[in-house]
Amino acid sequence: MSRSTPLTLGSLTIETPVVLAPMAGITNAAYRRLCAEQGAGLYVCEMITSRGLVEGDETTKKMLVFDELESVRSVQLYGTDPVYVGKAVEILCGDYGVAHVDLNFGCPVPKVTRKGGGGALPWKRGLLADILTAAVGAAAAYDVPVTMKTRKGLDEDHLTFLDAGRIAQETGAAAIALHGRTVEQAYSGSADWDAIGQLVESVDIPVLGNGDIWEAADALRMVEETGVAGVVVGRGCLGRPWLFRDLAAAFNGEAVSTLPNLGEVARMMHRHAELLSEHMGEERGCKEFRKHVTWYLKGFPAGGELRRSLALIDSLATLEVLLTELDASAPFPTGELGTPRGRQGAPRKRVVLPEGWLDDTDGRDLHVREDANEVTGG
Question: If I label 367, which of 131, 236, 240, 350 is the partner at 20 to 30 A Cα–Cα?
């Protein structure tokens, strides 16, 4: 197994070609720090809205928090208006020292696609080109690379990924990431790695592959099968930040699979809650930690009452006491390896779109309204 090639995004070089996918309510500064402590890569802040940033929305500004050891600040931006997106990129680069901006054109959430945003927007090729042009132009003054993330298309009858790749290349984007599912699929079914390979063949800029990377071996297999320049990891690391240790080792040519016992997992849980408390204050940090308990304990022996108590912690002291009740010697549940984590659900019955959205593929004359405080997942 040979060492992988670093990922080059414009002026940025990422030694390990692995990107932590932005996930709403998950990839805050504490979680990015936790993952970065495990292995090298690029760790992207949870998505913010361009309009919220430009108009000074307090919720948006509170999300733009970075850890003191976060040397490369990376943010995913949502936007449907080229003017707002351009201004937002300028603010991110100029006021926040952001070194990488990713644009979200992949979110499948109905409240977003209903307004023509996220995964719906690439159907409007002209609008997509205008947004990318505005973002790349604004970032150029700071020598900051702009990338985009998208899906295969609205559904199997309305695919957009090849056009999106062409437009990304023509407008100067540094890379394009493709989640191998349609908006209609949401997080259900299997990711189409063949489509990712098709995109690699059709463009000259780096392509990043996303979808169904549950173990480090999956990442290597995706690179081998599709030719991607790097991988984007989302749900696979939920409750398993040490996956980035395995990924770093795998891309360095080493065969490593981290199988922590429950005692080691408990220490990781405490570290996570500790970092959240440092960044948010103990009360809020502990509340934020609660959602992670189920993911950390997936497959491990832990009684229902103890799980419920852990999911209701209100202080680090309480967490420490409860963690001692876990069987520290319990081995890692190997049956969980390679299995989906996080949300899955069923395909959408239909993709919710603005009226007449499919009538044309340009969209330059649209004025798609953004909500200043709209926060979504990618």
Answer: 350
